[in-house]
Specification:
The complex is a heterodimer of chains A (about 210) and B (about 500). With about 210 residues, chain A is mostly helical. Chain A contains nine helices and no strands. In chain A, helix 4 packs across helix 8. Chain A starts with a helix and ends with a helix. With about 500 residues, chain B is α/β, with parallel strands linked by helices. The chains are: A mainly alpha (about 210), B alpha/beta (about 500). The interface between A and B is large, with 100 and 130 residues.
Chain lengths: ~210, ~500
């Protein structure tokens, strides 16, 4: 090993010596000494900005082009924040100012809410960061006593919550997914929590 | 082809030798070029490239609007050497330079600085400036949120393979942004993609959308999955995204997180067909789920973003406040936050967005001096701070764009003519002002100008014509940034508008 280190270090030293030998070109030059003999560019035939008149200032008040209509088909778009909160309130059977939403409101801008007065526009991308904040904000809702009493059988049967959240019955895939997420838990409280989080984080509930 | 020296060792000794050299060469104090040369000499070119690609790089993209003028930061040689005979002033075609010839200092390699930019002198060896880039083409005298240097090939009309670049931008409705399509990812976004692939535990890259109105800067992933930057729209949102203490985890274990992500993937599978999304939407969502799986239980690197008193004194001193409609955050604050995020390995890709509210018709001395201080001082402090961290500077690139066009030297000028500025700083950058702007004639109220681009040696000899001929193609600037960031060149060929473009090698060491 010592031999290897010595060999590598020797080579490193040789390279360093070579690099240092080349030095760095520098030194201060006076304005008068610099670039005096560089060839010039084309004269400006228009007598304008040196580019034949391409530098027309344009009209600062010119109308902006209309926004093209683009369907967001390549990335899912979340429902607006206030719609998600309203839907949560409906599922939980409470008003949107219920204390169970405190964490949700604390993270409202991380979750895409807007406040035009302070220059914050809606952000409806459903990103990993939004998902992280959403699950954290859902936890106190899923563990709320009132919410749990509204869905007492959630640990074993998600159908009532799915009906409330999706306004339809679960598909076979959804049912299988919610069974799987519950199966990983050792007790009823864990199963209740995980099914609640999964139903209320699924795209069917949060996206449009 | 030269035979790698490793082949002269007995096979059983090679592994130990390679391990030893990897340790020695990965030391932060070993310059990248030297490390590459050593790896190439010892192990061959392929190994050298692979080794470089496995090292982290740090990127700070600074986007300045509205049509930022660096005229008090870097004075083109042709102006610096003739300023005594030029008409200077704040209106008409007068040169908007408010220093006299004796106040402008030469520093070699085409650099001439004013008193407003002297703070950059210690770092000029690693700062490259190029102002004869492709012009911006927004309908309102050039204003646009995209920029041909940042997304080469961007078009008003959707060409084959191009997508809308603005879809991920919040509040993208204000005039002066314009609607563009492209197939080339923007710099910080593609860097974010590669760095997260290299280090999946990194926080997502961010862009601080702190322009004082809904003038925007588009960041675009061009189909790279989970590459989009997080859009930070307020200081509070920044602090919420990077809390100073570890929050409760969303889920308590890696196993539970994996189970949760798998369940959502199954539950969501039917959603796309029901709602009319395409397969790309499903792929993007599943990539997001995979990334979220790591976040639900992972404890991120923590950094305290709010400044203490010494930090405020360091970053703020001498930097004027933002000039705009709805002030969000000053440029010195953004620079300080970016440094904290990058130097603490929270993320490796940060973009800043900042503006000086659009000035028309005249440019007073205060405008020029404010923009100079707002760009030169934070840049100098960023460089100084990064250099203080062993090994970081040589793996860092800072790219500054006058994002919606620059200005001609004349006071009454707009971003659809004249200069279109690109500044690249980093440990791998060969400093210099490349190209030139020279007085071409008198107009009565001032001057007309001629522009010269650098040739492939960096010499200012290529005339710029009215049809744009002679300007540096945005693809070359883009490839230069990618090379500085050590992104794998072979991968870049997938983007057709930059595939055939060569980097500006004279800018790099």
């Amino acid at each position: 090993m010592t031999t290897h280190a010595a060999r590598c270090t020797t080579l490193l030293s040789m390279f360093l010596a070579a690099a240092c030998y080349q030095g760095i070109d520098g030194g201060e030059r006076s304005p008068a000494a610099a670039d005096d003999d560089a060839p010039g560019g084309a004269e400006d035939p228009a007598g304008g900005d040196g580019e034949g008149g391409t530098a027309e200032p344009g009209d600062p008040n010119a109308p902006d082009p209309d926004a093209p209509f683009e369907v967001p088909g390549s990335e899912v778009e979340a429902l607006p924040f206030h719609v998600r909160v309203q839907n949560l309130a409906t599922v939980a059977g409470v008003k949107t100012d219920d204390p169970m939403f405190a964490d949700m409101y604390a993270k409202r801008y991380q979750l895409g809410d807007h406040d035009y007065a302070t220059g914050i526009a809606p952000n409806l991308r459903w990103t990993p960061e939004h998902m992280e904040a959403w699950v954290k904000a859902l936890r106190p809702i899923c563990s709320n006593v009132g919410f749990q009493s509204r869905y007492p059988d959630l640990a074993t049967d998600p159908s009532k919550l799915v009906q409330a959240a999706f306004a339809r019955e679960a598909t076979a895939d959804e049912r299988l997914a919610f069974d799987e997420v519950a199966a990983g838990q050792v007790d009823g409280a864990g199963r209740h929590r995980m099914v609640c989080l999964a139903v209320l984080t699924s795209l069917e509930f949060v996206a449009r | 082809m030269k035979k790698p020296q490793i082949e002269s060792l007995p096979p059983v000794a090679r592994r130990a030798f390679m391990r030893m050299c990897a340790t020695v060469l990965a030391a932060p104090t070993v310059p990248a070029a030297l490390r590459f040369a050593m790896n190439e000499e010892l192990f061959g070119e392929a190994h050298a490239f692979a080794s470089e690609a496995s090292l982290p790089t740090y990127f700070l993209e600074i986007n300045l609007r509205d049509q930022w003028d660096f005229g008090h930061v870097f004075v083109p040689p042709g102006i610096a050497t003739s300023v005594a005979g030029l008409t200077r002033g704040a209106s008409g075609d007068a040169l908007s330079l408010f220093f006299t010839a004796d106040q402008i200092t030469g520093h070699g390699n085409g650099f001439y600085l004013t008193p407003d930019s002297q703070v950059l002198v210690p770092h000029l060896g690693n700062i490259a400036v190029l102002e004869t880039n492709q012009l911006c083409e927004g309908v309102i005298h050039g204003h646009e949120a995209c920029n041909p240097m940042r997304s080469p090939g961007r078009s008003r009309n959707q060409l084959a393979g191009q997508q809308a670049v603005w879809m991920a931008e919040p509040g993208y409705t204000e005039q002066g942004n314009d609607y563009w399509y492209s197939s080339t990812p923007t710099p910080a976004t593609i860097h974010n993609f590669y760095q997260k692939a290299l280090s999946p535990d990194l926080a997502n890259g961010v862009t601080m959308k702190f322009i004082s109105r809904f003038h925007s800067v588009t960041h675009f992933a061009a189909g790279l999955l989970n590459a989009e930057l997080s859009r930070i729209q307020s200081v509070q949102m920044l602090y919420d995204a990077f809390p100073t203490t570890i929050e409760d985890l969303a889920l308590p274990s890696a196993d539970e997180s994996a189970l949760f992500a798998a369940a959502l993937k199954r539950a969501d599978a039917g959603f796309f067909g029901r709602r009319g999304y395409d397969q790309m939407a499903r792929a993007a969502h599943e990539a997001h789920l995979a990334a979220a799986e790591g976040k639900w239980y992972h404890t991120p690197n923590i950094v305290s973003l709010p400044f203490d008193v010494p930090e405020v004194e360091y970053w703020q001193s001498g930097v004027p406040d933002q000039v705009g409609d709805n002030i969000k955050a000053n440029i010195w604050e953004q620079a300080g936050w970016a440094f904290k995020l990058l130097s603490n390995e929270v993320t490796r890709s940060v973009s800043l967005e900042f503006d000086y509210l659009d000035v028309h018709d005249t440019r007073e001395e205060s405008v020029m001096r404010t923009m100079a201080a707002q760009s030169a001082i934070p840049l100098a402090r960023l460089i100084e701070s990064i250099k203080a961290i062993p090994g970081m500077w040589e793996r860092t690139a800072i790219a500054i764009y006058s994002t919606d066009g620059g200005r001609s030297p004349s006071a009454n000028s707009y971003g659809n003519g004249g200069k279109s500025t690109f500044v690249l700083a980093g440990g791998m950058v060969r400093g210099g002002y490349y190209g030139d702007v020279r007085p071409a004639g008198n107009t009565g109220s001032g001057h007309s100008w001629e522009y010269l681009s650098p040739d492939d040696s960096g010499a200012p000899v290529v005339p710029v014509a009215g049809n744009g001929t002679g300007r540096i193609h945005g693809g070359r600037t883009w490839r230069t940034v990618m090379k500085a960031l050590q992104l794998p060149e072979a991968d870049l060929a997938q983007f057709p508008d930059v595939a055939g473009q060569q980097p500006l090698d004279f800018m790099l060491t």
